[in-house]
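Q: Could you fold this chain for me?
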Amino acid sequence: MSRWIEETFHPHWRVRLEASKVLHEVKTQHQHLVIFENETWGTVLMLDGVCQLTTSDEFVYHEMMAHVPLMTLAAPGRVLVVGGGDGGVLREVLKHPTVAKATLCEIDRAVIDLSLKHYPEIAGGAFDDPRADVVIADGLKYVADTREKFDAIIVDSSEPIGPSASLHTREFFTDCKRALKKGGVLVTQNGLPFLFPAHLRATSEIFAALFRATSPYLCTQPCYFGGPFALNWASDEEALLKVPETMLARRLTKRRISAKYYTPSVHRAAFALPHYVSAALARPGQRGSLAKRVGRAPRKAPSH
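A: Sure. Below is the predicted structure, expressed as structure tokens.
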């Protein structure tokens, strides 16, 4: 007999997914975790009542998290992934041949172990790549303490509840900036702007205060119910926000990266925000002052 598992993150509505078979369910030291099979979505992971990934559409999120920041860089060498214990972002990061080291910092070893057991195709062997460095630690503390410098930091956290709440704070993002190399890029997931505009606005305000150039960008993630999904991009290198599509195409070809969602045209279009998303960047009673500070034009486009 099948079971229906409810997503409980949304305060005023619920979405239920049929679990034809529950593969694993446990309350870990950090969170409630359930993995189950669904005829449409394949294998599904939910943490604390929030759908995190499905094997049917995971490629959308993982490609947009990894390739949008890394394709703006001429030769990314060191990358930090905070969270992402399923290995999907790590898999996409390691497709870039110039990456010499990709550090994945995951707070919960159970997420990695269960991912490798129940849906190893998501990591695709990434954890066995000699360039992968897996650290089991609190991402907040790791970034605060590390002396390494990274070309890109990708924050693949869950929503700002439970152990992931600290990965949405100014304290954490300030430490991320310190851990970036000059001209490095920071990307984080930023939720559903239609349902949770305050989440997008809060991150955008922090980014605008810390970095010279920042902008949300969007993707269509079918399993994240509630409209387009937002990610947020920040760097002190303003030109990286406007890398031409032709240059992105040359880099994609040179790096021989195959993708199911990401293309250079999708990359550029993802930064074109619907008006309601731009409006979410202004606090009630303001006239979009924050929106004017994000996505601003670069002084000079890169030439390589």
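A (continued): The first helix runs from residue 58 to 71.
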